[in-house]
Amino acid sequence: MPSEADQERIARYRPLSGMETPRFSGLASFMRLPVMEPREAPGRIDIGLVGIPFDGATTNRPGARLGPRGVREASTGTRARNAATGIAPYDLAACADLGDVPVNPVDVAATARAIEAFYRPLAQAGIVPLSVGGDHFVTYPVLRALGRTRPLGLIHIDAHSDTDDGQYDGTRLTHGTPFRRAIEDGVLDPRRMVQIGLRGSTDSVDELDWALGQGIRIVPMEAVIDRGLPSVLAEARTVVGDGPTYLSFDVDALDPAYAPGTGTPEMGGFTSREALQILRALRGIDLVGADVVEVAPPLDPSGVTALVGATLAFEILCLLAEAVAARRD
Amino acid sequence: MPSEADQERIARYRPLSGMETPRFSGLASFMRLPVMEPREAPGRIDIGLVGIPFDGATTNRPGARLGPRGVREASTGTRARNAATGIAPYDLAACADLGDVPVNPVDVAATARAIEAFYRPLAQAGIVPLSVGGDHFVTYPVLRALGRTRPLGLIHIDAHSDTDDGQYDGTRLTHGTPFRRAIEDGVLDPRRMVQIGLRGSTDSVDELDWALGQGIRIVPMEAVIDRGLPSVLAEARTVVGDGPTYLSFDVDALDPAYAPGTGTPEMGGFTSREALQILRALRGIDLVGADVVEVAPPLDPSGVTALVGATLAFEILCLLAEAVAARRD
Amino acid sequence: MPSEADQERIARYRPLSGMETPRFSGLASFMRLPVMEPREAPGRIDIGLVGIPFDGATTNRPGARLGPRGVREASTGTRARNAATGIAPYDLAACADLGDVPVNPVDVAATARAIEAFYRPLAQAGIVPLSVGGDHFVTYPVLRALGRTRPLGLIHIDAHSDTDDGQYDGTRLTHGTPFRRAIEDGVLDPRRMVQIGLRGSTDSVDELDWALGQGIRIVPMEAVIDRGLPSVLAEARTVVGDGPTYLSFDVDALDPAYAPGTGTPEMGGFTSREALQILRALRGIDLVGADVVEVAPPLDPSGVTALVGATLAFEILCLLAEAVAARRD
Amino acid sequence: MPSEADQERIARYRPLSGMETPRFSGLASFMRLPVMEPREAPGRIDIGLVGIPFDGATTNRPGARLGPRGVREASTGTRARNAATGIAPYDLAACADLGDVPVNPVDVAATARAIEAFYRPLAQAGIVPLSVGGDHFVTYPVLRALGRTRPLGLIHIDAHSDTDDGQYDGTRLTHGTPFRRAIEDGVLDPRRMVQIGLRGSTDSVDELDWALGQGIRIVPMEAVIDRGLPSVLAEARTVVGDGPTYLSFDVDALDPAYAPGTGTPEMGGFTSREALQILRALRGIDLVGADVVEVAPPLDPSGVTALVGATLAFEILCLLAEAVAARRD
Amino acid sequence: MPSEADQERIARYRPLSGMETPRFSGLASFMRLPVMEPREAPGRIDIGLVGIPFDGATTNRPGARLGPRGVREASTGTRARNAATGIAPYDLAACADLGDVPVNPVDVAATARAIEAFYRPLAQAGIVPLSVGGDHFVTYPVLRALGRTRPLGLIHIDAHSDTDDGQYDGTRLTHGTPFRRAIEDGVLDPRRMVQIGLRGSTDSVDELDWALGQGIRIVPMEAVIDRGLPSVLAEARTVVGDGPTYLSFDVDALDPAYAPGTGTPEMGGFTSREALQILRALRGIDLVGADVVEVAPPLDPSGVTALVGATLAFEILCLLAEAVAARRD
Amino acid sequence: MPSEADQERIARYRPLSGMETPRFSGLASFMRLPVMEPREAPGRIDIGLVGIPFDGATTNRPGARLGPRGVREASTGTRARNAATGIAPYDLAACADLGDVPVNPVDVAATARAIEAFYRPLAQAGIVPLSVGGDHFVTYPVLRALGRTRPLGLIHIDAHSDTDDGQYDGTRLTHGTPFRRAIEDGVLDPRRMVQIGLRGSTDSVDELDWALGQGIRIVPMEAVIDRGLPSVLAEARTVVGDGPTYLSFDVDALDPAYAPGTGTPEMGGFTSREALQILRALRGIDLVGADVVEVAPPLDPSGVTALVGATLAFEILCLLAEAVAARRD
Q: Are C290 and C247 in contact (CB under 8 A)?
């Protein structure tokens, strides 16, 4: 229960309601929330929604740079209260749209620096970031900012492990390598890391061997099907434990029927109900940040992928708001 | 078993077969059935298929006014016999396409009157209507025509409750209010009404409280998943009982992967097999009318939503034909 | 040449440059301009860009309610200086995005009132509005606000005359009637009104007779081809003269190849170069407001129509900025 | 001027007006005209609109079998009077939609027989057919039916000559051969035949040599550009003279920007205004039939090609109605 | 375990890796495998991937002629090792892309002969074909080539039985008849044939009666749901036994949500995970050939169907490689 | 006239004809030409078609990395002889598809090196490259390879000047800077360089000033319209003179109606006929290489942009073949 002062503060940051103005009207901020300059955020808000419109580390089909814009638009359809869990995130935490990181679309390393520089003051101010990518590379600099003081645990929902060492004879910063880099940098604790939903074909077994050697818990899609999601999710909770944990959701974890608009789709993924089931099982984990990545609107003419991205973001926002409230108490 | 006279009459109204002329040829009437003026229907047919090309009560993305045309086209792929249930609807009931209600696309109230005026003579003649919308508002005037002599029961498959009181400071006729209006008018019996598949986020809990206060049985998607569809469907039968019942199927009950072409899609809906399972469980209910609504073809470039709409309409036609036959006996 | 104080004021309202942050990043305001509450606009800005996301008066295919959002996105590709004319609008006038009018998507009359109420204080404060629709009906209430003190002249670029008396047996407020209503209300001077680009088939000759009877100058597309655009545009200048004039550009004036995303496309329209030629010929007219209407993004999967809408809006903004500067001098 | 009896007869066959019911409502017949069984047409109507949903002779991308359905839908946007020419076709001739030829999608020869059998009684009854394909092969059997008693002249607007002898080592019935076959059969007079708009690359010069050897007048696109359309169209009139003439319009004559939905698009074609200009220049020719072919809706997500097909069909209908009226006088 | 010579030979035919050159680069051969002339294949390779770009036997919507091209492109995303089963097909068998059969798009019978002529030398050389259609008719001539010396068993995954006798009053070679023709020709053993996933509506019960009369085991979708896939797949293994068996996978077996790009979609089909589950259960069967058919890219703007087709082809390739290795041992 | 030996050699490299196998069959090489390893090209061929699937220097919407694949597919529709000019390129020069440059999608500088390394041996062997991009940055390393021994002239058709110095505070290798870099490197002679078609809005006048200061001849679209294309093209010939000249065609030079599938479309561009007119006017120039860039297939659902790209490539191939033949004589 927030203090009276907190309640008052929180009440200042509410999304526009579709009961008063139509959801398709007005500028499309995340969830129709107020827009705020990042430098004004400290002391005012608890959770900052941030776009990272960068796909310059993509080695497959591009388009995720347009993800933040697409997810913002689709997110105008979310409302104030999660009907399934009863969570009303805007009653628990002050939330705002902090705009986009100023990326450099043609320079991976420069963008990595820009992202880290954007998130570091947020981290220092205790503002929990919910980011929308962008390709999966963007998670690496975010982790560098958030995991600076102590390595984080990670719940990683994805079709791919993204723990490659490199591609093309030595290129080490791609959307296939973020978690290897983060582990090497000590900002991610591989023994508190679980990957769920991996599938498809692979180029080698080395990547897998390295990941297992680091202590990462990997639950490929086949294991999910065999064991059932409840067992897998219970294990995930055990792996990350009580420590500070990041949540990274690659939309290609879902089957292409549910999320065709992504650069590297893999047949045989999660249904949308399973994706929601996964997220709703993560209540109570000490989440300190999260992202939804790889939404590539130009690859999806029907727009369902952006809708999925926006709905996942809302569900994660509910988790983050509860975590914020729990830490406040 | 129809009487010999009935059999002869029924045999006059058969769809064209794709074994003789290709399904893509000829004018696209519903199910390739004969087209008939509504005023000629009484005494000739048992079931009338009607389009209601109206989306003027939509508060989100429009396009459902093009639903009847899209569903007619897709329905040319249906054939004479339901392979799953064995029902051959055109052997049980005389069916025809009665064309579209003459709506006024920019005037909700005038359209409500036009719809009611269109259905009243059909109701008086005992012709069972199967309607294709159009946004969900259109169900309200249909219920006014059909429930005029006694309130109806309702099986309502949808992502949304559509029992709002109003929007925008007092607008009471929208696609979010049809069932509240119908209950207020006494044409719908809330205690014989069940809503299945509700989900997503909500703007308030008032709508839900009102609905529960009226005695409506609500089974949100989470409860469907927990309990399983068979239990839910058994309860639905109990709720509506033996009395005259209407069936309203909003295509957004399905997950956006299965039905992207709708104005207010919500992640996490029914699969197509579940939708068929629901309908096939409703055999034996005393159905007096039904509709499929919110198919918005411009929002679905692959056309699967119109296909879903057409297939649902065919499955419902099978139910209505059995109900007609049962009442005849 | 603005005064020093004006220059300083104007300099506060500049669009973000794509040379510094990518055009696809950040919230998509019109032209990447600052966003401002309408009530804060008086005294600060000269030109207000406004979205009117309403297509509830559309009697054909809907979708224009999503026009403001689509045009905002596409407008992020415009830059600071018009390379063809040399006009640098943001050096001449302070411009801002004033957001969207709070429309009621299911009530034409209520929306008309909301639009008029939104524009009246702008008009009183001398702020020149550049509006993006929405269907063409929205021009009527804008004209009521702007033409209140004296009737306006009108340059109307369109495939349709939009001077019908009504449809469906007496419905008088549709996207086919705005100019007839505005003339009846005395806010539009038909003798200072010219319509350019009309074409296609017609339901009757009555509409035309009425318009000609009022003194409206009509230049159908055939006459444009015969006479050449320069002659037509010279005539247009003569018709509107030196008085205050409104400019209304319906995107369906363009050929469907150039602007497929509109509700009532008509084969045989303007090319994009002709559209630019038309606008660039209107320099020096005393424009007091303008709009671009009928952009319907869901009907255009390639997005070229929103791009056309945004580019037309930028060209018109250049005209308005010059008019503002001229009136200032 | 039709006789009083004719006027009365003609008045029975009028299209539905969009001023009374919306254009998107009701079953989509050609131009919203009455639907009639072909066998009931003789004595009742002057012009029969017919769909030929066949693309089984296509050697490139398929989809034109869905042309009649797509054009019917788009044609609901045409109105009663041609604003450019003033022709009101439904005042001059009784018109109806005669449905589709019962084609066999997998058998070219059988379909050729079915088409010829469908058109022969129409020809005998003096009913002028306006056909919508379907690939260009369908013109061949139509010509066999119409040119049976004397060879016809032909105005052929197309990107391709369609006078090949065959493909794939001897296949002689394809969409590349209809006019060669018709000339061989004596139903088409090559000296009264003109082809306008040919362009692109070619596999050989043999086809051209044969065509020129037969006396066909060929005006490739380059010549159109050099000489100007008026000169070309004057020549076309001279070529066909006063005799009975058929008009065949392949939508790929237009540039792919204007008509992307066709199987064999060729860059550099006619604009939509030129296409209209061509047709409007053909008034007074003794047209006995016409077609619009190669509209392939699945290849055009924006629908502009079907709109072009429908508008061309309406313009041609105006020509046919005048020809009918002229022959009646 | 291949002999050393075999290992050396097999190692010559490896796909390009996406770790070295991007998957979107280079000509798109199946799986990025080497391309080889069919006449050079004997003695060199074990498995030949072949495209059959023919949809001239389609009685519904066309487009499958573009299937091979679409599947080749999507197949560039597959990698060297099946992560779920651990099979590394290119270690077990030498594979190459043999190009496309030279079909005649307008002549079903000629194409049947061309297909059979293409496959006969492959069959004689013991090369196992994996074909990508094309419509389902193409399976018939492939079976004639492969089943020439002894009738084959068949595992048939499809929404439709494709055992019709004919359509349109006697047309016997369509995509609805391949298996009836193959049984009549003695190249397919109906008692070793199982059909899984049939569903939808039917025109008659005759087709079913004939199929059952022949001894074909039919498991419609309803039975799959009732019994569960494991039981069905165990039965399938029993039906085909140890004998040489063909596998034919029609992509319309999947639900339209998963595979919208197909000519005759039927609501209520398999999910992508079930499709993979089916294939992975077929390890150990003596497969002598296989195909994936009815992928129609023009009907699927998001491209998921081609992705499904390519992934199914990869999974089947794994099965065939194991079968080749097993026969080698 | 090639020597007999040349004729024999040239005759070995002919495209497959659509008269023998359908254009949609087989692997899609450029123009259906033979595929050859670059290292085997010297001494065998005169012209090499090369794909450069790289869009990592794009600062706007991505997708051009898929350009080579899209253009290859569309190019299968071109035939052996240019009907407009009579040029039969495959009779004049031996042509082959040399595959794609092995780019690194996430590293601009590494890709620049890879491109230069790919083209240098071709240049040394006197093989004329016709490249398909990729974003416009790729022209820079190609120019470095071709202009190494002496600076080249340039005919540059584009909506943008691409002579920026940098973006984002110092990034110098982007698709907006290739020609500035090439001039700085001395491989491009600015006084023999002409830019045609520039238009739209600009961020500053600096870029223009620099370009003019270098002596580049710039003909913006407005000047093209004013002066007419013939005058502009005559000037272009004068500018480049008799020296070795490169031709670079950015598809965004065309209007978005003709080429929507490009990252930075600008309203008001060339028509397709003008684009052909431009190219056909360049006969006789001493062309030593050429490219077509910025085709981004994911941004164009109708595929017309890839068709335009392929047709432009064919027209340019005709020019290059004539230049090769002229140099041979």
A: yes
A311 touching chain B per CB within 8 A: yes
Q: Looking at the partner chain, which of B59, B65, B104 has a beta carbon nearest the beta carbon of C105?
A: B59
Q: CB neighbours (10 Å) of residue A12? A: 11
State CA C132 to chain mean position distance.
Answer: 6
The per-residue pLDDT for range B77-127, each reduced to its tens digit, is 999 999 999 999 999 999 999 999 999 999 999 999 999 999 999 999 999
Mean pLDDT of D37-47: 97
- End-to-end alpha carbon distance in chain A: 7
C-alpha pair distances (Å), B147 with each of B28, B313, F273: 31, 21, 63
Is this complex scored with an ipTM above 0.95? Answer: yes
Residues above pLDDT 90, as percent of chain D: 96
E-chain residues within 8 Å CB-CB of F25?
A: 51, 53, 68, 100-103
Average pLDDT score over residue span A29-46: 97
Residue F244 contacts E, CB cutoff 8 Å? no
pLDDT at F59: 97
Q: What percent of chain A has pLDDT over 70?
A: 100
pTM higher than 0.95:
yes
What's the pLDDT tens digit per position in C193-211?
999 999 999 987 778 899 9
Give the residue on D whose Cα is nearest the Cα of B297. Answer: D301
**pLDDT of D294:** 98
* 8 Å CB contact between F303 and F77: no
The answer to whether residue E53 scores a pLDDT higher than 90 is yes
**Amino acid code (one letter) for A221:** M
What pLDDT does residue A1 have? Answer: 66
For residue F210, how many other CB atoms are within 10 A of its CB?
Answer: 17
Do the chains contact at F255 and C276, CB–CB below 8 Å?
Answer: no
- The full 3-state SS of chain A, as one line of letters, equals CCCHHHHHHHHCCCCCCCCCCCCCCCCCCHHHCCECCHHHCCCCCCEEEEEECCCCCCCCCCCHHHHHHHHHHHHCCCCCEECCCCCCHHHHCCEEEEEECCCCCCCHHHHHHHHHHHHHHHHHCCCEEEEEECCHHHHHHHHHHHCCCCCEEEEEECCCCCCCCCECCCECCCCCCHHHHHHHCCCEEEEEEEEEEECCEECCCHHHHHHHHHCCEEEEHHHHHHHCHHHHHHHHHHHHCCCCEEEEEEHHHECCCCCCCCCCCCCCCECHHHHHHHHHCCCCCCEEEEEEECCCHHHCCCCHHHHHHHHHHHHHHHHHHHHHHHHHC
C57, two tokens: 């008066």
The CB density around residue B231, as the number of other CB atoms within 10 Å, is 13
Comparing CA positions, the residue from C216, C308, C213, C304 lying closest to residue C253 is C308
Give the integer Cα–Cα distance in Å for B26 and C218.
41
Identify the structural domains of chain C with CATH numbers, from first to last.
Answer: 4-328 (3.40.800.10)
pLDDT band at F329 (very low <50, low <70, confident <90, very high): confident
CA B278 to each of CA B274, C118, C246, E268: distance values in angstroms, whole numbers, following the listed order: 6, 48, 57, 12
Distance CA F329, CA F326 (A): 5
The residues that bridge with D290 in the sheet, in sequence order, are D130, D247
pLDDT at F1 > cutoff 80: no
d(CA D11, CA A185): 84
* Interface chains of chain C (3 or more CB pairs under 8 Å): A, B, D, F
Separation between Cα atoms, residue C188 and residue C247, nearest integer Å: 12
Segment 16-75 of chain B within 8 Å of chain E by CB: 17-24
Residue B149 near residue A1 (C-beta atoms within 8 A) = no
pLDDT at E169 over 90: no
Are E191 and E200 in contact, with CB atoms under 8 Å apart? no
| CB < 8 Å to A57, chain F | 106
